[in-house]
Amino acid sequence: MSVLIGVIADDFTGATDIANTLSKEGMRVVQVIGVPEPDATVDADAVVVALKSRTAPLQDAISWSMDALEWLLAAGAQQIIFKYCSTFDSTPQGNIGPVADALRDRLSAGPTVICPAFPENGRTVEGGHLMVNGVPLHESPMRDHPLTPMWDSDLSALMSAQSQGDVDLIPLDTVRAGRDAIETALAETAADYVVVDAVSVDDLRAIGRALSDAKLVTGGSGISVGLPQNFLDAGQLSALHAPQAPKVTGRQVILAGSASVATQGQVAYAAARMPAFEVELDRIAQEPDYAEQIARWAWDHSAAAPVMIYGTSSNDVLRRNQEKYGAARAGEMLETTLSDVAVRLAAQGFDTFVVAGGETSGAVVSALNVSTLRICTEIAPGVPWCEVEGARTQAIALKSGNFGAESFFLDALEML
């Protein structure tokens, strides 16, 4: 069966986010890690290619995205989604704009929607401005992001700073007028990109239904909610699929590397309820066998309960570490250590991994040599359980730093 929807995601947690949305909407969804080999085949209605391109050097981000596009087109994908974060994580130089420009050029796409809205997690687009829980993006905690601090909430301004295209707006009243009104607005604009307001899931569904003929769609995971129904209506999707929970029985570990406020709260909640080990950057720098020490601790404490290993720290500690080691180096040290620990634990028989943080998720999945994830049941909006396809069944959840309730980690494990 040919792939109907192909997704190019700029980080691993964002990939599982949109894969989860498409799965909830009834599609059989597979997430692949990196661009597959040219002759690789996937049996799914939608395939999400997870890249680690959000903060990669610009030319690498473009090259990887174009390779993903060519593979998806060869697999038969009829519609392409460029999925980026619902907080539009980027710098004035990219990478969202330049990647979108390259994809538009290759596809000869018409006016292309920009809509990072994800109302279930508090992200809305109102008057062309991106809001986070009712606060303009640049006034939210994203203003202090260590890699992509956001300086504006105006999506037209953000996109214009990094793209070669003109940007227009479809306001909320047009969206609320329904599919026909949205289609008319898209047909009448002369712009390359169109920011579309959305403050509810119903808004997103109307937008998606209006994009049945779009070659390229860009946005957060919410932009995909109306798309599967288009293929069902066209007779190209034979039936809707109900996701199932993965079946695993081994030891469980939480690996938290995100420094987000949400993850800080989740770590504190879990640490009061299970064995927890805090990773210290100074010890990483000073003790060559530190990862082995952590893995031994996890084995000793995990027979009767899940364990948590975390490098999540307060903003003060994060700044101190960045001043001492440099922002990029500090992040790399933590990611490398957590991924090294994950490999050691997998070798010991751990089969359930909950990973928090986009960069940490990318490092862990890569270290575990995971190539394909089948999307299973939803834990929380934007975060599904995934089943690792391979010789040994493993369950893995990749959580964006800002997603999930305070009890997320425990909720996830209780589902299994």
Descriptive key words:
15-stranded mixed sheet, alpha/beta
Descriptive report:
The protein is an alpha/beta fold. It has two domains: 5-233, Putative sugar-binding, N-terminal domain (Rossmann fold), CATH 3.40.50; 251-368 and 393-414, Four-carbon acid sugar kinase, nucleotide binding domain (Molybdenum Cofactor Biosythetic Enzyme, Chain A, 3-Layer(aba) Sandwich), CATH 3.40.980.20. 38% of the residues lie in helices and 21% in strands. It has 15 helices and 18 strands. It has helices at 12-24, 58-74, 96-107, 155-162, 172-176, 179-188, 201-209, 227-233, 261-271, 281-286, 290-301, 315-325, 327-347, 358-367, 408-414, and strands spanning 5-9, 29-33, 46-50, 79-83, 112-115, 123-126, 129-132, 135-136, 167-170, 193-196, 216-219, 251-256, 276-278, 307-310, 350-356, 372-380, 383-388, 394-399. The strands form two sheets. Strands 9-10-5-11-4-1-3-2-16-17-18-15-12-14-13 form a 15-stranded mixed beta sheet, with helices on both faces. Helix 11 packs across helix 13 and helix 12 crosses helix 13. The mean pLDDT is 94.
SSE layout:
Blueprint (H helix, E strand, L loop, with lengths): L4 E5 L2 H13 L4 E5 L12 E5 L7 H17 L4 E5 L12 H12 L4 E4 L7 E4 L2 E4 L2 E2 L18 H8 L4 E4 L1 H5 L2 H10 L4 E4 L4 H9 L6 E4 L7 H7 L17 E6 L4 H11 L4 E3 L2 H6 L3 H12 L5 E4 L4 H11 L1 H21 L2 E7 L1 H10 L4 E9 L2 E6 L5 E6 L8 H7 L2
Helicity range: 25-40%
Number of strands: 18
Q: How are strands sequenced across the largest beta sheet? A: 9-10-5-11-4-1-3-2-16-17-18-15-12-14-13
Q: Assign an overall shape.
A: globular
Give the domain tally: 2
- Structural class label: alpha/beta
Which CATH first-tier class of the largest domain would you pick? Alpha Beta
Determine the number of helices (DSSP H or I, runs of at least 4 residues): 15
Distance between the termini: 31 Å
Gyration radius (Cα, Å) is 21 Å
CATH topology of the largest domain: Rossmann fold
Average pLDDT over all residues: 94
Indicate the low-confidence ranges by residue numbers: none
Most strands sheet: 15 strands, mixed
Specify the CATH homologous superfamily of the largest domain.
Putative sugar-binding, N-terminal domain
Q: Give the strand content.
A: 15-25%
If classified by CATH, what would the architecture of the largest domain be? 3-Layer(aba) Sandwich
